[in-house]
Task: inverse folding
């Protein structure tokens, strides 16, 4: 019985996996950065994360999503970039499985 429940739970987790396109910004400026201002958005987001301790966030269609603590290292090299994220969402927090520019 436990094995069946595990399979059902794991299967439902896979069904919730999805992908989104957007911009990796910072929690201080968040949706002010969409990547539309190119290098200016990128440099500001990178400075806020690296120098001011802001958390990376994901902005898609004007909505700001938190990045799960265990996923922040996966987006660290992509702060300031337009990306596609594969992962799962719980409320307004995304757990990242993969990120691509």
Result:
């Amino acid at each position: 019985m436990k094995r069946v429940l595990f399979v059902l739970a794991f299967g439902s987790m896979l069904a919730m996996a999805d992908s989104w396109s957007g911009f990796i910004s910072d929690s201080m400026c968040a949706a002010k950065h969409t990547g539309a201002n190119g290098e200016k958005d990128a440099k500001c987001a990178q400075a806020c994360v690296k120098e001011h301790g802001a958390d990376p966030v994901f902005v898609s269609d004007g909505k700001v999503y938190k990045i799960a603590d265990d996923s922040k290292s996966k987006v660290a090299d992509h702060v300031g970039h337009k990306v596609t994220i594969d992962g799962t969402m719980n409320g307004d927090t995304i757990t990242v499985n993969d990120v691509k520019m």
Q: What stands out?
A: The beta strands are 18-26, 56-60, 63-67, 82-90, 93-100. The first strand starts at residue 18 and ends at 26. The chain has three helices and five strands.
